[in-house]
Design goal:
This protein has 5 helices and 9 strands. Helix 4 crosses helix 5. It is α+β, with helices and mostly antiparallel strands and 212 residues long. The chain is 26% helix and 34% strand. 20% of the residues are buried. Strand 5 and strand 6 form a beta hairpin.
């Protein structure tokens, strides 16, 4: 069970060619993201978010993309969390989308900024009540003695806010990753994958094919 060197599968997806690639990486992302959503892939919005703090030690976790546009890709979190502390020290990050059913990956790298309080308020209010209470009860990434202690916090908040309108914690908010590079990866037969990288140079996007 420990030796997985013979575990593999073949990739049989159609090619990704330079002449069919969108000139704007956001447009290319929208096309692939749209394919994943229309196919109703499970957790199509999930992305692996990699950060590193002042000590240089990388950390990675799955977060859910909540909205995106030409300004960047946004998610929400407790800003006291491990990723929040790392981003406070080093506001550079990379995220990765993997849509296995299409043998596709998109890697996006850039600078992270916080969203304003109005964005955080609007999204927090839109969440289901259970999610709001969980976020308000938890100091994300901090040590706690037991599951029962965490559930007790939720119970106490439910008693304090019986109408379900628990307020957004001050340190719960949103982030935006503003891209300076994108990479689109399409799995191909024999591991001869198609890879294209967009990089921002002199105000425009430059495209290069990368070797697999």
């Amino acid at each position: 069970m420990k030796d997985q060197r013979d575990t593999r599968r073949e990739y049989t997806a159609p090619p990704l060619r330079r002449d069919t690639l969108a000139a704007d990486p956001l447009q290319q992302f929208e096309e692939w993201f749209g394919d994943a959503v229309r196919a109703e892939l499970k957790d199509a919005t999930a992305m692996a978010l990699a950060t590193a703090g002042a000590d240089g030690q990388p950390g990675v976790r799955i977060v859910l993309l909540k909205h995106f546009d030409a300004d960047g890709f946004c998610w929400y979190s407790d800003q006291r969390s491990a990723k929040g502390r790392e981003l406070a020290d080093n506001p550079l990050a990379s995220c990765l989308f993997h849509w296995r059913e299409f043998d596709r990956q998109v890697r996006i790298t850039g600078t992270v900024t916080r969203l304003d309080a109005a964005d955080a308020d609007a999204y927090f209010a839109s969440r289901p009540p259970d999610s709001r209470f969980s976020a308000a009860a938890s100091e994300q990434s901090a040590v706690i003695a037991s599951r029962e202690a965490l559930e007790a916090r939720v119970t106490e908040l439910r008693q304090r806010y019986p109408d379900g309108q628990v307020p957004r914690p001050a340190q719960w908010g949103g982030y935006r990753l503003q891209p300076h590079s994108y990479e689109f990866w399409q799995g191909r037969e024999g591991r001869l994958h198609d890879r294209f990288r967009f990089q921002r140079r002199d105000g425009s996007w430059q495209v290069e094919r990368l070797q697999p």
